[in-house]
Amino acid sequence: MSIDFHASENRSSYTGRSADKGWLKAMAEIVNPVGKNVIDIGCGGGIYTAGWAELGAERVMGVDFSQVMLETARENTAYLPQVSFHWGDACQTGLAAGCADIVFARALIHHLDSVDSFVAEVNRILAPGG
To answer: What is the per-residue DSSP string for 39-100?
Structure first.
């Protein structure tokens, strides 16, 4: 069963909770986001976008192809000045090359038509050493 991410009745499907403390701990053990620019592709309602901010990222940008999800994400993270959102496709984000220190995508790949195109886009937006 798939979900229509553009339908207003689904706008709260990926909100109403915070990133799990176990996830926060695991991410902090894998990578230090303090002072980094993080791009969260397929951010939905912004749960993990906010999580990266909580972990100390300097800036976090959530990218999603659904304006409905982005509206909800903006509402739910309005208290986080380092968080912003951008409309874009996972394979063509429209972001500048080399703009990200960390690119994150959770529960996204199974929605994509081309994983190769997504990986190419991630490589394009990652800064050297990202």
So the answer is: EEET-TTSHHHHHHHHTTBSEEEEEES-HHHHHHHHHHTTT-TTEEEEE-BTTB--PPTT-B
User: Rounded CA gap, 130 and 127, in Å?
Assistant: 5
Taking the model in full, what pTM does it have? 0.85
Q: Does the residue 84 lie in any domain? A: yes
d(CA 64, CA 86): 7
Q: Which domain holds residue 44?
A: 15-125
* Residue 50 contacts residue 25 (beta carbons within 8 Å): no
Q: Which residue has the tokens 């190769």?
A: 116
pLDDT < 70 positions in the chain: 1-17
- Is-contact 86 93, C-beta < 8 A? yes
